[in-house]
């Protein structure tokens, strides 16, 4: 079982007042919004969703702890044991920020699924580096379309050459993601399946903070 500290770091999808996704926050922040009556829980159940304030969610949590304890992450306090919600809705916020996906190491690793883009093997992040497809010494820029994950062996093999000169080939063309690639990783987990109906690729992006 997870400790309460790690459970409070679980991800919660935040919707605005009109049920449009805004961002992803940690459970600790979500509970703060719920307790201050700035948000409510949105629970997706059999393709429909119900909403709960903090007190009613705490009551429902007691029932779910008896009948489906493995279906939730749990936070234990002196007074109660409460399930971490997967989705919350802000009660007084209706704006929808349009966010650009940040160009950083974390998002590049997520876009490439922690897989070397030359040999195709997946590695722990500590064993990966970033490679400029067109080396900077040849005028290559540090942009989405020219930076990929690369393992140590492939990095050494390629050196300061173009992939073709080193007899290497990219397994996929590097592109700028339309929204945070980290969301795609989490949507692969069953416990975040309820997020899917709120994620619209065409209009907005969700960025982790």
3D structure, described in words:
The chain has 209 residues and is an alpha+beta fold. The chain has two domains: 114 residues, no CATH class; 62 residues, DNA Binding (I), subunit A. The strands form three sheets. Strands 2-1-7-3-4 form a five-stranded mixed β-sheet. A two-stranded antiparallel ribbon has the order 5-6. The protein has a two-stranded antiparallel ribbon with strand order 8-9. The radius of gyration is 21 Å and the shape is elongated. The C terminus is likely disordered.
How is the topology of this model organized?
Elements (H helix, E strand, L loop, with lengths): L3 H4 L3 E5 L5 E6 H9 L3 E7 L2 E5 L1 H14 L6 E3 L4 E3 L3 E4 L14 H7 L16 E5 L14 E5 H7 L22 H7 L22
Parallel strand pairs: 1-7
Antiparallel strand pairs: 1-2, 3-4, 3-7, 5-6, 8-9
Q: Taking all residues together, what is the mean pLDDT?
A: 82
Number of helices: 6
Terminus-to-terminus distance: 25 Å
Number of strands: 9
Radius of gyration computed on alpha carbons: 21 Å
How does the major sheet shape up?
5 strands, mixed
Spatial ordering of strands, largest sheet:
2-1-7-3-4
The secondary-structure class comes to: alpha+beta
- Total tally of structural domains: 2
Helix content: 10-25%
Approximately how much beta-strand content do the residues carry? 15-25%
Helices and strands, in order, run as HEEHEEHEEEHEEHH
- Given as residue ranges, the uncertain stretches (5+ residues, pLDDT < 50) are 201-209
Shape: elongated
């Amino acid at each position: 079982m997870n400790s309460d500290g790690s459970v409070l770091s679980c991800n919660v999808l935040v919707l605005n007042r009109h049920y449009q996704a805004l961002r992803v926050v940690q459970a600790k922040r979500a509970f703060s919004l719920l307790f201050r009556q700035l948000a409510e829980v949105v629970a997706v159940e059999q393709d429909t969703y119900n909403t709960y304030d903090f007190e009613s969610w705490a009551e429902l949590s007691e029932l779910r702890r008896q009948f489906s304890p493995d279906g939730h992450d749990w936070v234990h306090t002196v007074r109660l044991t409460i399930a971490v919600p997967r989705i919350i809705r802000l009660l007084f916020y209706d704006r929808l920020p349009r966010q650009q996906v940040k160009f950083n190491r974390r998002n590049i690793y997520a876009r490439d699924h922690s897989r070397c883009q030359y040999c195709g093997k997946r590695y722990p992040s500590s064993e990966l580096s970033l490679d400029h497809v067109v080396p900077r010494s040849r005028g290559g820029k540090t942009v989405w379309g020219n930076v990929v994950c690369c393992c140590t062996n492939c990095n050494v093999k390629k050196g300061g050459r173009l992939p073709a000169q080193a007899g290497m080939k990219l397994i996929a063309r590097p592109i700028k993601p339309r929204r945070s690639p980290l969301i795609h990783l989490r949507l692969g987990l069953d416990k975040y399946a309820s997020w899917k109906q709120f994620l619209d690729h065409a209009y907005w992006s969700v960025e982790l903070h």
